[in-house]
Amino acid sequence: MSSFSGMTRQSDDQDLWISWDEYNRAIESLALIVYEAGYRFDQVLCLARGGLRPGDIFSRIFNVPLAILSTSSYREEAGTQRGDLDIAKYITITKGALSGKILLVDDLVDSGVTLHKVQAHLKEHYPAVTEVKSAVIWWKACSAIEPDFYHQYLPTNPWIHQPFENYDGLGAHQLSAWLKKK
After folding, report:
1. Residues 115, 109: contact at Cβ < 8 Å?
2. Potential cystine with 68: which of 18, 92, 159, 175 (Cβ 3.0-4.6 Å)?
3. Count of CB atoms within 10 A of residue 120's CB?
4. pLDDT in tens, the chain (182 residues)
């Protein structure tokens, strides 16, 4: 059970409601799974937007550079309808270039399309990358791809209501009014 938008919601087979505390613990649990597996990597590549928060935390915990690749497939209906996958032309990284062993981090694997296409993109455009393993918080059963590391397997494919969804569709004027009420 999680608090979302000030309301308490019960998770079921259709919906998984995640609080900030649960979200942060899930990222920490995933980091521990990767650590205990003994996987050592040179860089974290997170998929923006969903992988930004986990990628940042992994970069800090494992003390490796963070690279960011923007991808987008959920754009319609306030981010609830899947569209065509867009992959950014460039990867942002502050130190060097993408190379060596890469841990590809995202929040979830749903259909598996993003994970598959990004892995193919890396093979085609980044020859200095020698290995890519994936880590996600949630792995849905409907995915065509199994991630290398995951925090939770979801056999019923629920819609995951993440705590930052509160900001989807929230304009600055609405935020201002909401904060002034408090």
Report:
1. yes
2. 92
3. 11
4. 444 345 567 877 899 999 999 999 999 999 999 999 999 999 999 999 899 999 999 999 999 999 999 987 754 554 455 557 788 777 889 878 999 999 999 999 999 999 999 999 999 999 999 999 999 999 999 999 999 999 999 999 999 999 988 777 788 888 888 888 87
Q: Which residue has the tokens 């609830």?
A: 80
Q: Which two tokens stand for residue 101?
A: 């062993």
**What does each C-alpha distance from 67 to 9, 46, 57, 102 come to in angstroms?**
35, 6, 12, 10
> Does pTM surpass 0.70?
yes
Mark 2-30 as b/e (b = at least 16 C-beta within 10 Å). bebeeeebeeeeeebbbbeebbeebbeeb
